[in-house]
Structures are given as structure tokens and as C-alpha cells.
Amino acid sequence: MLSRKLPVKLADADALPRWRRPDALLFLMAAAMPLAFATWSALLNNFVIDAAGFTGVEIGWLHTVREIPGFLAIGVIVLLWVMREQVLALSALVLLGAATAVTAMFPSFGGILMVTMLSSIGFHYYETVNQSLQLQWIDRARAPQTLGWIVAVGSGASLVAYGLLVVTWKTFGLSYGFVYGLAGGTTLAIVIFAALAYPQFEAPEPQLKHFVLRRRYWLYYALQFMSGARRQIFVVFAAFMMVERFGFEVHEVTALFLINFMANMVAAPFMGRAVGRWGERNALIFEYCGLTLVFLAYGGIYYFGWGVVLAAALYVIDHLFFALAFALKTYFQKIASPGDIAPTAAVAFTINHIAAVFLPAGLGYLWIRSPGAVFGLAATMAFTSVLLALLIPRHPEPGYETIFARGLPVAAE
Asked: What's the rounded Cα separation, in Å, for the pair 161 and 179?
């Protein structure tokens, strides 16, 4: 039997029980993260309005602060000098869980910003390292299908959290403090189990531990930038609209999230198979075209007075399209040099969050004047992403990263 105290090579991991293998750990972490983060998100808009009287301006500043750690995800490279990626992923989950657990203890603008910053460091550093581990630990041939199942597991965990909120919030008169404490504490318990139950896994290719920015990855960087900018508008303002414009209460917002994650849990494995069959190019074009139409429809809610049913339906459809984002991961997996995965994950996360640092605060002021214009800007970004996705080859590989690069050698940059 393989010792859990010694590092285990991926090639030897099949000798472990199935529940202690690398993909099982990825599934477990995929469940642990949303128990804290999804609960925080579900309660956030109601909590900040009830506890601190937030408007669009304050919510914009909150999300700007929340995205600063994402912009600084490049710091992961420094942390990897002193700890393994697997250890860093679990440590980041500990910070996320702990910060979520104490969120309701700081019901002021400054307190909420402070706790949000801490939880965001945990979330973004976990996501950065987790993406790297997924691409290293999952075989390329089955990556789309496995990533689809990982999305489904995360959606299932969110479904459990939201389902309990819908059933118990009004029935038992739950408080923000109790729910945040329980969600964060559950995440911490899962992380402790994962730290004790799993060995340290060693990927076959050692990862570079310095800044990596390669010219041949330019399209991947551009798509990451547009994804971050576009997604911030949705994350910040779509759910806020449901509370501010339509007066959704906690259990109603949570019910909407519940429907959303039920749809994702069912659809994500099929999306994984679709990406494996039709390729990243077609999957991303489909995603970005759909998002363009969804954001235009969001704008129509304000300009033409379309109702709450359409708004709720668009919210679910929007999330379904975003679930296809793992196609961008597998595109990079196909074009990357094996040792570039960890440092490029950190660089890509930073690029993804460049716009996220200034967009929420800036658009908070635009939101007060014209909410429809905010969603119009998001539609423009989504259409720009369509044009970029057209540059992805049908079968990308090193040296063939874009449709312009066929036959070019992989440069030693």
C-alpha cells in the first residue's frame, strides 16, 4: 500500500483506493469551495442592504475590493517557492471558510470590505492553483468530460447549500451569522479531512516557478481578459438587480440560485462531452454568442420594462453559458508546454482580473444613471469575445495556437 506520508507520483496513484486518488481530491475540493462561497454570494446582496444600507455605489466598491486578490494572483508563483500547489490550494480554502464564517460579525461598510478581502484571497488563490492542478492531474483525452463533472459536483454542493437556505431561512428564522458560520465551518471541516486523508501527489512535469508570459499564448490571454471584464458585470449587477429592482428577499434569491445550480448540475457533464466532440472553438463561439443575446435582453428589462420572470430566466441561462468556460481551460491545456501550466494559471488569473479591479466601482456610478447601459457594455464585450474565439483552430496544439500560426515552430520564449 502507498504511504500517505510520502509524495505519490501520478503514475502510481491508481494503486490507491479510488476515493484517495487525485481526481477524487479535485471533486472533494470542488464541493468544499462553493459551500462557503455560494452561501456568501446568496446572502450578500440582502446582507449588505440590510446591515449597511448599500446602494449601487457601495456594491461596486465591494466587488472592486473583492477582485484585488484576483488581480494579484501572480503572487501564487512566490508562494510556490515555499509550498506545494496542493498545500496552497487547501490553505486557501481554509482562509475562504474562516472568512465566510465570521462575515456577519462585521456589519459595516469597512468591516464588510475587510472580511471580503480575506475571503477573496482564499477564493482567488484556490481557483488559481486548482486550475493548475486540474490541467496537470487530468489526462488531456478526458479533460473536457472530467471538468464537466467537476462543474457538476460544485453545482451539486451549491444546490445543497441553497436548498437548505430555501427550506430553513423563513421556517426557522435563521440569522446571517448562523448561516455564514455553518457554511464556513463546513468548508473548514472538509479541508481538514482532505489534508489528513490524501497524500501529496507529484505531477510528472515540474512546474516553472517564475513569471511566464509567452507571445504564443496571446489569444488565451485576450480571451481571459474579456472573460474577466464580462463576468464582473454579471456577478456584480445581475443578482443586485433582482434585489434592487424586483425586491427579491433572501429565500427568493436563494431559490433562483437553486434553480440555476440544478440546471448546471444536470447540464455540465453533457457540456463536457460536447466540448470533447465539437472542440473548444465551437464551444466558446456558442457560449459568447449566447451571452451577447442574454446581456442585450438584460438591457431590455430596463429600456422596455420586461418583467421579473424573464429576468430570472435570463439569470439561469446566463449561468449555463458560463459553465462552458472550462473550454478555455482545455484550449490552454492543448497549446501549453507542460511546465508552463502553474505559472501561466497565475498570470492568466491576474489578466482575468485587470478589468475586475476598476469596472465594478466605475460601473456602480453608471448603474445609478442607466442600468441598461451597463448590460449593453457587457453585450459589446461578449461580442468581442466571439470575434476572438473565431481565431481558435479546430485542433489547437503547441505551435498552432491560432488560425494564423500553422506551421510555426514553438518559440523558446
From this structure: 10
